[in-house]
Inverse folding.
């Protein structure tokens, strides 16, 4: 019995020491990292890093460089992360310029991806002849990681054009305005589709919605699963909205949630579908 | 009795050493506080370049200084200078260097006002 007690208190001492050691090494004096790579930053600093990539892209229009920089963050879904951050920052009213830049970069990445996947653009004629090779020896040449150079060598690099897609040359015309009572589409939404003159869905188009005492902005292409030219906005009950595209064109007035009735007799707010074409 | 105490204290010491070893060597989880100031110099230089690119386009010095605060350096001009030194050493393109130098000149013109006010 005494021997058993002896080994038990030794075990207790060992466990006590282990706990003290873990608390000290993980919480009191954790490992201090130096020479970090961007993927090891805290979530907040990664957000800031992404925002810087986006504002730099807005300034230089270099999608290849932006893509190489984003690769350093090693996000599982870089496009989705960008789009989500853009939506989050827009909703929070945080750093409007950065949020807009994030939205534009997300949309342009989506469009570049779509361009890459479309069979008709596989010909070299779609690479802008006036665009110099977008990647320069710096900064990607100096990175220790290989991903930027790999990106530069990918087909995407040759197809990407540095032209932002959000500066429409022709004004947009409202082609359709329809109130729809279909719960499957959503409830109380303004759904906007934007096409260019050739009938291609346009991502990255900024949409401004106003109501008494408020304004909000959102972008097409942030929900690529619903279409590159798709955007939606949730209406509040009994609020009247007006909407216009930031790139110009016909404004739409008097938008409020259409009153609808479900099959079981319950009322629900319907959806406005607005279709714009260049 | 004294022997028991010594063995107990030795067990604690052994456990503590094992715990510290595990925490520091085997499972050093990145803390939630990893900041951009701890980025390697090439990444910090690229951050400065991004800020310089934005500044070259919008000429918004207040925004540039605010963005430089991301690097948590007490002297924004100093970190820009370090980035330029790195860029020169590693052959950044002339246009990138030009943008960084323009940012440095602008930040230096503000340095007496900015000073250590940037966290």
């Amino acid at each position: 019995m005494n021997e058993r007690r002896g080994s038990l208190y030794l075990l207790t001492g060992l466990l006590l020491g282990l706990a003290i050691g873990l608390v000290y090494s993980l919480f009191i004096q954790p490992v201090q990292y130096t020479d970090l790579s961007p993927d090891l930053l805290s979530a907040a600093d990664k957000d800031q890093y992404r925002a810087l990539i986006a504002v730099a892209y807005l300034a230089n229009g270099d999608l290849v460089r932006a893509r190489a920089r984003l690769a350093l963050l090693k996000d599982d879904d870089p496009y989705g992360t960008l789009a989500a951050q853009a939506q989050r920052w827009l909703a929070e009213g945080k750093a409007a310029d950065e949020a807009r830049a994030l939205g534009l970069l997300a949309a342009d990445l989506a469009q570049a991806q779509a361009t890459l996947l479309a069979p008709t653009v596989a010909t070299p004629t779609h690479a802008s002849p006036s665009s110099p090779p977008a990647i320069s020896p710096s900064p990607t040449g100096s990175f220790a990681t290989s991903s930027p150079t790999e990106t530069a060598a990918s087909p995407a690099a040759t197809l990407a054009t540095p032209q932002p897609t959000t500066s429409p040359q022709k004004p947009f015309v409202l082609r359709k305005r329809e109130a729809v009572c279909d719960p499957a589409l959503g409830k109380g939404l303004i759904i906007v589709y934007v096409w260019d003159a050739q009938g291609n869905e346009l991502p990255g188009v900024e949409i401004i919605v106003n109501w008494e005492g408020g304004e909000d902005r959102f972008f097409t292409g942030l929900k690529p699963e619903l279409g590159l030219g798709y955007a939606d906005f949730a209406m509040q009950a009994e609020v009247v909205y007006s909407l216009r595209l930031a790139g110009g064109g016909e404004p739409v007035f008097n938008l409020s949630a259409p009153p609808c009735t479900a099959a079981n007799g319950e009322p629900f707010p319907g959806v406005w579908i607005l279709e714009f074409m260049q | 009795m004294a022997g028991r105490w010594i063995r107990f204290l030795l067990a604690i010491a052994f456990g503590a050493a094992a715990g510290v070893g595990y925490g520091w060597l085997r499972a050093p989880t990145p803390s939630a506080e990893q900041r951009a100031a701890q980025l390697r110099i090439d990444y910090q230089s690229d951050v400065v370049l991004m800020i310089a690119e934005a500044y070259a386009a919008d000429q918004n010095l207040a925004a540039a200084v605010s963005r430089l605060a991301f690097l948590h350096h007490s002297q924004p001009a100093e970190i820009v200078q370090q980035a330029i030194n790195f860029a020169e050493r590693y052959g950044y393109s002339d246009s990138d260097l030009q943008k960084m130098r323009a940012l440095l000149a602008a930040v230096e013109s503000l340095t007496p006002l900015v000073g250590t006010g940037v966290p």
